[in-house]
Automatic annotation (TrEMBL):
The keyword NADP applies. It comes from Stachybotrys elegans. This is Short chain dehydrogenase. Keywords: NADP, Oxidoreductase. InterPro entries: KR_dom, NAD(P)-bd_dom_sf, Sc_DH/Rdtase_CS, SDR_fam. It comes from the Eukaryota. Residues 5-185 form the Ketoreductase domain. GO terms for molecular function: oxidoreductase activity, acting on NAD(P)H, oxygen as acceptor.
């Protein structure tokens, strides 16, 4: 194992975020977790004393973002990478969308992501670190009633590309994790029936029922390896967790 590094992971209490955290900890890295579920974050810290720290709260709160970056520096002395994993999905056609709900989704999926990147950049420049932005296939393919979510992920892709151009010492990569067995997939199956096109909705249900969803640990392990040892030539790109560019990270 090479030198231990320090990472921030958002949406770290469940799903892909929790899987990334566990993979990083197994690699002997140090991690600052953030999410709203304090009890789940506390359990990770208790299980990994001296290796894990956390800040519980709403990531759209600028004070929380400052606390998260400060926790990395105060607890572990540096910051080598950030996995921006948190996100919100609402299933509603754009013509029926309430603008306040749309703005709230963008606060979570876009504005807070950029705010965290901004807060992290001074430290990432020092370590020539990495930003991983968790994207989605919905950023490049339209699904009925996913306009807010899909466009927010497209915005995330663009932010990643622009930071890659503007910050040559920082590797910035958007990554699509595929269809993963998470709470978000459960929400699609429970709430999407009345808003999505039947064929699209049935496809999500069928993939779940046939056991076709990925386990969070599958993309999670790849994301953890990538943020710890990023390929500089991927900066500014959108990659799929199982794409050829990431073959060495799946070994």
């Amino acid at each position: 194992m090479s030198v231990s590094k320090v990472f921030i992971v958002t949406g770290a209490s469940k799903g892909i975020g929790a899987a990334v955290v566990q993979s990083l900890l197994k690699q002997s890295h140090k991690v600052v977790l953030t999410a709203r579920s304090q009890d789940l974050l506390e359990s990770v810290k208790t299980a990994h004393p001296g290796q894990a720290e956390y800040v519980a709260g709403d990531i759209t709160d600028s004070g929380i973002i400052t606390q998260v970056v400060d926790a990395a520096i105060k607890s572990f002395g540096r910051l080598d990478g950030v996995v921006i994993n948190h996100g919100l999905l609402e299933s509603k056609k754009l013509g029926d969308t309430v603008m306040e709900q749309f703005k709230r989704l963008y606060d979570v999926n876009v504005h807070s992501c950029l705010a965290l990147a901004q807060a992290s950049l001074p430290e990432l420049r020092k370590t020539k670190g990495c930003l991983i932005w968790i994207s989605s296939g919905a950023a490049t393919k339209a699904y009925t009633a996913w306009g807010a979510y899909g466009s927010s992920k497209a915005a995330v892709n663009s932010l990643s590309m622009h930071i890659a151009v503007e910050e040559p010492d920082v590797t910035s990569i958007a990554l699509s994790p595929g269809r993963v067995d998470t709470d978000m997939q459960a929400l699609i199956r429970s709430a999407g029936k009345d808003s999505m096109v039947k064929e699209e909705y049935d496809d999500f249900v069928n993939v779940f029922e046939s056991g076709g969803l990925l386990k969070p640990e599958q993309p999670g392990a790849v994301i953890a390896k990538l943020v710890a040892d990023p390929a500089k030539e991927l900066s500014g790109k959108l990659v799929k967790w199982d794409g050829p560019e990431l073959a060495k990270y799946r070994e």
